[in-house]
Amino acid sequence: MTTHSNDKPLFPVPLAFIVGIIGISFSAIFVRWSEAPVAVTAMYRLLLTNLIMLPFLFKYTAEIKAIRWKSVFGLIGSGLFLALHFLLWMASLSYTTVASSTALLTLEPIFVMIGAYWLFRQKNSWGTVIGMLIAMIGAAMIGWGDFRFSGEALKGDLLSIVSAAAVAVHMLLGKTMRQSMSAFVYSFFVFLAAAAALGVYNLAQGTPLTGYSQKDWLMFLLLAIVPTMFGHYLFNWLLKYVKAATVSMSVLGEPLGSTVLAFFLLGEAITGIQIGAGFLLLFGIWLFIRSQGRKGKDEMVATPAVPAPLPEIPEERTGASRPSLTDS
């Protein structure tokens, strides 16, 4: 069943954002609780997600058969960059704090916005840019006290930055493909490609694929369900209805969510500056969404691939030329 660009969302888009942000905020917690190598954790996280989705795959048989080779390469490419993101970001948590690592991930919207302008010529209002910058400042302030510019912490911070660039490429590829492919099919094969890439990496490194504790397997499963199904899958679904840059803004909520969860579950301290930064971050996100205005509402339903014919408008009656399909 191939979806069409004019399909309406099954449930409110803002709700999907909130659930997705909460979902990805748990990712750092589960990674910290696992004692398995990060590449193994990432691989099993995705493989278990595929197993969860597998029973429902038969419903999309017609759509899968219609996939062309160009789309196959796109799915593989998106999966490779997702694998690179997971590998680098999870590795960063071994060198730096949750607050610092997730705060640096907020560079993702900048990378996505630059890529969207370069590839799709997508422009944004000044209000949108200002809102994003305010949110990024708030997110950076959350992790500021944990930033280190030397030693292992610097290595973790650099890994987090490169992982943000990788997931930005994954997001831009997804935006292109989601216009003609369902979220389920796109997510299933991207997760599979990413898991395969991580599997090859683990084999090349000689990393054991078995012998992990029950606690580790529980973390793999929780990572599959909470931040992947209720996080990344929802964001893949959103790519059809809003800009890639708008979806990438959701990552700005992760430092706040992860820091709060790390306080309660990992015992990491929260400072007064971080609390104030949290309010600044939320204000920036609110300003970003508000600045989208009518344009943001129009994005909820993308332009149909085959536009419906315009009604005939007698020029002698209106005295005006027929409107163009590109008028907004």
Automatic annotation (TrEMBL):
Name of the molecule in the record: DMT family transporter
Cellular location(s): Endomembrane system
SUPFAM superfamilies, per the entry: Multidrug resistance efflux transporter EmrE
Keywords from the UniProt entry: Membrane, Transmembrane, Transmembrane helix
InterPro entries documented for this protein: EamA_dom, EmrE-like
Annotated EamA domain residues: 16-143, 155-289
Originating species: Paenibacillus chitinolyticus
Topology within the bilayer: Multi-pass membrane protein
Entries under Pfam families matching the protein: EamA
Transmembrane regions listed in the UniProt entry: 12-30, 42-60, 72-92, 98-119, 126-144, 156-173, 185-205, 217-235, 247-266, 272-289
Signal peptide residue numbers: none
A cellular component term, taken from the record's GO annotations: membrane
Span list, region Disordered: 305-328
Protein family membership: Belongs to the EamA transporter family.
UniProt superkingdom: Bacteria
